[in-house]
Design a protein that fits this description.
Elements lengths: L1 H15 L17 E3 L2 E3 L8 E8 L21 E3 L7 E7 L4 E9 L9 E3 L1 H6 L7 E8 L1 H10 L46 H4 L13 E2 L7 E8 L2 H9 L7 E5 L6 E9 L2 H13 L6 E4 L1
Parallel strand pairs: 3-7, 4-6
Antiparallel strand pairs: 1-2, 3-8, 4-7, 5-6, 5-8, 6-9, 10-12, 10-13, 11-12
């Protein structure tokens, strides 16, 4: 009787437990233009992006929190946030101040603070030597192959896949051929002839592991100049007009690129530290120019 009562009690306790929340699959996405922290961002697909800027450290978040593309956010994994990149993407992050470099999985939008090029999970920031609530000059580069593999493998509601019937695949046969005249190895032996067959699958980029491994590489430290950019134009007079709208930061107009139709950008700086650059970003936003960027060059 005691055993039966104990079994009934355990069964009742098990029924009272809440089932774990269902796991939502991540997806591939871009999304519409949006405003965050007073700055407008325009997501676009870019598998060759490389840019320098200032990294922020993301908060630890709450249990069960989901990223913009539906993945579970884990502050102890190497993940990050970017304002415009396709989600998810694999990105190399190089701390220009100490030379450390890691790879992170960008799967969220942000960071919310204006003038930041990427937001890093607390664990990613720790491996890069960035303190909590700190910032650092970084250079980021999209890992093309792994990012393209994610784009091709994950569901994509914005661009539904078109079902295409596969062409019939014939078996590959090999045949030993006699060696060509003079095809001899040292010692007089005939050199073997090897046939190598490649399939389309061999050319596909390999899916990155999830979670990413905690591999830290070291490169030379290479801190750059802190600049702000407040727009680029195809006409110098329009760039000059934009510069005149920004008081107090001494903006200037510089040519950008070359070719038959050069562009002109409005820039200010260099600034001695991130705090001074942040103040300049705030001045540009107060002037009503919501597309300001903080760069490291």
């Amino acid at each position: 009787m005691r055993r039966a009562a104990l079994a009934i009690a355990l069964l009742a306790a098990g029924c009272d437990r809440q089932a774990p929340p269902p796991t939502l699959p991540g997806r591939y996405m871009l999304g519409e233009p949006y405003a965050m922290g007073g700055v407008w961002s325009y997501p676009r697909e870019d598998f060759g992006l490389e840019e320098g800027g200032v990294a922020a450290v993301l908060p630890r978040g709450r249990p069960g929190q989901r990223t913009a593309n539906g993945e579970a956010y884990d502050a102890d994994r190497l993940v990050g946030a970017h304002r415009t990149l396709q989600l998810p993407a694999i990105v190399s992050v190089w701390n220009l101040e100490n030379g450390r470099e890691i790879k992170v999985r960008v799967n969220d939008r942000g960071p919310a603070q204006p003038g930041r090029v990427i937001g890093l999970s607390p664990r990613a920031a720790q491996l890069l030597g960035i303190p909590a609530n700190g910032a650092a000059q970084v250079r980021i580069r999209v890992e093309t192959g792994p990012s393209q593999a994610l784009a091709g493998a994950l569901p994509n509601a914005e661009r539904p896949a078109i079902a295409v019937a596969a062409a019939p695949r014939a078996a590959v046969e090999t045949e030993a051929l006699p060696p060509l005249a003079g095809a001899r190895e040292a010692g007089g032996r005939t050199a073997p002839v090897r046939a190598v067959a490649r399939t389309l699958a061999d050319a596909r980029p390999e899916m990155p592991p999830d979670p990413l491994p905690e591999i830290v590489t070291t490169r030379p430290a290479q801190p750059g100049r802190l600049l702000i950019e407040a727009g680029s134009f195809f006409r110098r007079d329009l760039a000059q007009r934009q510069a005149a709208r920004i008081p107090g930061v001494r903006p200037r107009v510089e040519p950008l690129g070359g070719g038959r139709q050069p562009q002109y950008r409005v820039v200010a700086g260099p600034f001695p530290d991130v705090a001074a650059a942040d103040r300049a970003v705030g001045a540009v936003l107060l002037a009503g120019l919501p597309e300001v960027r903080l760069l490291v060059e």
